[in-house]
C-alpha cells in the first residue's frame, strides 16, 4: 500500500520522524505575523495619508455668505442666498438640484448620441 498523505503508513512515518527530532513537515499558521515589508508599506501609507490630510482642502469661502442678513435671524438665507441667486430654478420646474442637473446633462448626451447615429445611418445608405 502506498504511503500517500492521509494513509496510516504516512501517519506512522510522520510520528516516527517527529520522535527522531526531524523538522516538522507541516507549517504552523500565525495570522498576526507580518512579513518584513508590510510594516514599511503601512508606515509609508500612513505618512502619505497624514500629509494629504494636513493639506487645506477646504471649500468654504467667506465671500459666499450674504452678510446683509443676520445669521441668527435666517441662517438659510445667510448661507445660501448668493448661491440661490446664481443658480435660479428653471421656470418650468418646481425644484432644481444637483441630480436634476445631472439628469438634464444625461438627456442632452443621449440626444446627441441619437442624432449622431441618425446622421451616420443616413450617410451609410
UniProtKB/TrEMBL annotation:
One of its GO terms (biological process) is proteolysis. Keywords: Hydrolase. GO terms for molecular function: metalloendopeptidase activity. Its EC number is 3.4.24.11. This is Peptidase M13 domain protein. Residues 72-122 form the Peptidase M13 N-terminal domain. The keyword Hydrolase applies.
Amino acid at each position: 500500500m502506498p504511503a500517500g498523505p492521509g494513509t496510516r503508513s504516512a501517519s506512522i512515518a510522520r510520528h516516527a520522524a517527529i520522535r527522531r527530532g526531524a523538522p516538522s513537515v507541516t507549517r504552523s499558521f500565525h495570522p498576526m505575523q507580518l512579513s518584513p515589508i508590510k510594516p514599511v508599506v503601512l508606515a509609508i501609507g500612513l505618512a502619505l495619508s497624514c500629509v494629504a490630510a494636513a493639506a487645506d482642502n477646504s471649500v468654504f469661502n467667506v465671500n459666499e455668505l450674504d452678510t446683509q442678513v443676520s445669521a441668527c435671524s435666517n441662517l438659510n438665507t445667510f448661507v445660501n442666498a448668493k448661491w440661490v441667486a446664481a443658480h435660479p430654478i428653471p421656470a418650468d420646474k418646481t425644484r432644481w438640484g444637483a441630480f436634476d442637473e445631472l439628469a438634464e446633462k444625461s438627456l442632452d448626451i443621449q440626444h446627441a448620441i441619437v442624432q449622431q447615429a441618425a446622421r451616420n445611418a443616413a450617410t451609410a445608405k
